[in-house]
Structures
1.
Amino acid sequence: MTADTVFTGLRFVFDFSVLLLWGSAIYLRVLVAPALASMIWQKMKPVRIPAVWLTCAATVLSLPVRTAMLGNGWPDATAGGLMLDVLLHTSVGTAWIWQAVGTAALLLSFALPQMRGRMLATALSAGFLLIGLAMIGHASMHSGITGLLHRASDALHLLSAGAWVGSLAPVFLILCPATATTFAGEARLALMRFSTAGHLAVALALLSGVVNTLMIVGGLPIDWSAPYQQLLCLKIAGVGVMLALALANRYIAVPRLSRQETAIIWLRAGTIAEIVIATVVIALVAVFGMLEPFP
């Protein structure tokens, strides 16, 4: 297995974990009533804790893998001198230091005594890590003012998309029948707030996505001889399906929650479908993020 393939897998694990942590933490901390948020935060522990450790593992492993990619393959992965050169003298090393700092902050969030403080610290650490992703990949292809604008657009894209897809897990738990019954008023308010804030998150994700595409490809991704553009089109199609599901949930299912018991079933099914598609989209990004935009 090549170093490039391993790094693609690490990138998927890292992106998926951090997006989940960022979106779920910021949603529960800001938009959900404290009692309900605390209960959902506890329910997410079997997913949340592994996500933190997977983030740590991906961070630790990515430096030797990137060293192998920049060197002569796996024999260079553990070459201390080369790894130090990569760390101190390349943009890859700078991005890794940023990632290591954010990962350390994520671990330290466990030490905070109050649950809501841990939510906020998790959100800030994960958001910091997402911004760091804009330092590498295609967002670093430009320099000067153009480069800064591209990185800013990419960071906005990651934060807004993460706020959307990362919130889907706690939304699904809020839709559980027991939760929806025990916290009826809080659950309905949380869903309405998710729908409202989701409009802004989706709009920002779409706008920044268009800007990124124009800055990387220079136009529409219609050159099917380039695998990068093929996978980008698949990503766009996946996001389009997610958007359609989100709109159906917001304007068809949510208004019927108080009148039809089947509405919550449709909401749960739609949320599961969004999570599955989002996972595929993240995997696509991990793959085409390693490719050249043009053949």
Note: Residues 176 and 268 are 8 Å apart (CA to CA).
2.
Amino acid sequence: MTDVTRRDALQITALMATAGLTPAIGEAAMGTAGGIDFDDREEEFDARIKTLGSLDDEDVFRISQGHIYGFVPGRPVFPLCNYENYSVSRWKRLPDGNRQFTLWEVGLHTDRTTDEPLKTLFNPVTEKEVEVIPYAVGPLTATITPDGVVIPGTERTVQPQALKPRVFDGTVWYPFESPVTLPNPLPVEEYPAASTGEFFSWHTVLVFAANLSDLANPEILSAPALSTYSEFLGWQPWLQMGQQPGGMMTRGYGKKFGPESKLPADRRRKIEETVPEMLDRDNWTKPRNEFSAYKERHPKGDKQ
């Protein structure tokens, strides 16, 4: 796999992990609830888009926060830091009825006590102080149809699966999961401290929830929605864990909001201090992810 297709596959994963838009596979019929026929693919698709994004041409904003833990064989799970996430998705209706979706997303690693962005972190496994690199991924644009995500010209190595929506007491939950294993963009011979090995893996479990009445209301094009996620993944490059067995577990919880002017002042300040291009997305055009960010700071590898 080339550097370009590695990057594309990683970007695809980020988009689909955020969107959860691939159709459910092998699930039993749901029937009609609250005026929505969830067995009708067009009605279900519109309800899903309203939950995750918008049927209108607009930007959708989501904020979340959570915690990051580490685990290695033979010792208890241990906390690493807090985590504050901010994502923006740009939605556009296409002439054929499908949707176009563009994603930008950042994540700030923060102190567990003060919630201030970390510049360094004491790694309790290696007992070394390491430089913290904020998470930033995007932009990535895709076409979304009732049958899934269409990204022409890329290597389709990733296929997250949306699970059957669940309805209870006026709430609709959209769960999905995404197990991923890709060739590591950081070769061990060049990045012995940052690379987890030949492959990099993670597994995301995400749930979005909205009121059934909002989804059934034709006047609401973007439904208020809550979200929660758990993710199991290999060590992030900046932790300098090398090929140490184990990995990371992150959990978070958040919601859609808007307009962007409602972004909390404290969160805006932190983004301006760490990843200011997130607030200037029209000028953020070069694709980024955690691996490209590490390479930018270590262009000659870990040994030089």
Note: The longest helix spans residues 3-19.
